[in-house]
Amino acid sequence: MFIGLLGKANVGKSTFFSAATETTVAIGNYPFTTIEPNVGVTHVKTKCACKHFGITHQNPSCLDGVRLVPVKIIDVAGLVPGAHEGKGLGNKFLDDARQADVLIHVVDVAGTTDIQGQPVPPGTHNPLEDVEFVENEFNQWFKQILMREWQKLLKEILQKTATLVEGITRRFSGLGVKEFEVSDILKETGLGMKKPTEWSEDDITLFVTKLRKKTKPVLIAANKADLCKDLSIIDKIKENHVVTCSAESEFLLRKAAKVGLIKYISGDSSFVISNESTINPQQKQALDLVKTVLTKIHTTGVQEAINHAVFDVLKFITVYPVEDETKLSNKDGVVLPDARLLPVGSTAKDLAGTIHADLAKGFLHAIDAKTKQRISGDHTLKDGDVIKIISAMSRG
Ligand SMILES: Nc1nc2c(ncn2[C@@H]2O[C@H](COP(=O)(O)OP(=O)(O)OP(=O)(O)O)[C@@H](O)[C@H]2O)c(=O)[nH]1
Ligand SMILES: [Mg+2]
């Protein structure tokens, strides 16, 4: 599970990354601050399975029944129009983000940066243009991958050394694209019925656009909302998944919480100052400003965007593997030690495979700790399941 940050140069990707991972990376009000990618760990928040059993347990990943599940996140170089032809840093960002399962497209909705990412007065640039060009660059990148070897692919099909599905999937294997996904798009577009030698330019564009949307779905983080004079611009973004954000506010709140100035849990709509007397006037002013932002946009949106990307866009579920289904623990007695994110539709055997290949290889059956029932390898798991795997082979 990998989240990638995508967007025009200078929109706040690294600020979002810093806030989400609580790490310090280069942030600057000019394009191409980031060149080499930053990789870190953030968390999704979900209801811990301890709630179902009505138990309390000592686990730093469980805060009063709210479970933090780690997710990798990558912050990459920004884009400018024409990146697919080498403008700016070209497609470097895409090469770095290829492992991402889902992308958070950070957009400067306050319009404080022009199309090249140069600072401009707030409201002077139309963010809708950015949404369009970034998506277009992303699609163009997919198209180039296919076009690079199109003639070779046609030859393979003619010589029957590969089918259309195999040939296309191979070109996109570095991006984790699966045969069934290629197959689905061929069916959906009707292009599976058309000879590839007869595909027009438009057919190819349609195919790659659909494949990109399916295999690298995007959520829009409408960032710099704190500077946005008219938030109704966000409603004009024609995407299914949009979250209003102020990465800078989240960055500040997490920093203040870390040093004990405030009590704040990421995703909250308010914070409490721990001790008014220890706060200096600058800190007070900054926190007052954030308070105003929270009144305007409710939460900073960073945690919401991460959760939404994983649970709503990708539709992942959380499953808890245990070694003792009555004590709900591992063999050292740690209760609900592990939480795993799996795609919806994953089976008990899939879960075994995420723990160790040998566990899946020797899979006998599993036990659902909630019902205490025995389940088979092809049993589909549900969100919040607590599962013990019984395997003929131990972990390695
Ligand atoms: N007001 C406000 N400023 C923000 C927000 N997020 C980022 N910024 C500012 O925007 C500028 C760019 O931030 P970065 O995080 O470096 O942007 P980036 O997208 O990583 O930029 P590149 O790496 O150059 O592509 C900095 O001055 C940030 O302080 C936000 O939510 N609100
Ligand atoms: Mg950056």
UniProtKB/TrEMBL annotation:
<dbReference type="InterPro" id="IPR012676">
    <property type="entry name" value="TGS-like"/>
</dbReference>
<dbReference type="InterPro" id="IPR006073">
    <property type="entry name" value="GTP-bd"/>
</dbReference>
<protein>
    <submittedName>
        <fullName>Translation-associated GTPase</fullName>
    </submittedName>
</protein>
<dbReference type="Pfam" id="PF01926">
    <property type="entry name" value="MMR_HSR1"/>
</dbReference>
<dbReference type="GO" id="GO:0005525">
    <property type="term" value="F:GTP binding"/>
</dbReference>
<dbReference type="GO" id="GO:0005737">
    <property type="term" value="C:cytoplasm"/>
</dbReference>
<comment type="similarity">
    <text>Belongs to the RelA/SpoT family.</text>
</comment>
<feature type="domain" description="OBG-type G">
    <location>
        <begin position="1"/>
        <end position="265"/>
    </location>
</feature>
<dbReference type="Pfam" id="PF08438">
    <property type="entry name" value="YGR210-like_G4"/>
</dbReference>
<dbReference type="InterPro" id="IPR013646">
    <property type="entry name" value="YGR210-like_G4"/>
</dbReference>
<dbReference type="InterPro" id="IPR031167">
    <property type="entry name" value="G_OBG"/>
</dbReference>
<dbReference type="InterPro" id="IPR012675">
    <property type="entry name" value="Beta-grasp_dom_sf"/>
</dbReference>
<dbReference type="InterPro" id="IPR027417">
    <property type="entry name" value="P-loop_NTPase"/>
</dbReference>
<dbReference type="GO" id="GO:0016887">
    <property type="term" value="F:ATP hydrolysis activity"/>
</dbReference>
<dbReference type="Pfam" id="PF02824">
    <property type="entry name" value="TGS"/>
</dbReference>
<dbReference type="InterPro" id="IPR004095">
    <property type="entry name" value="TGS"/>
</dbReference>
<keyword id="KW-0547">Nucleotide-binding</keyword>
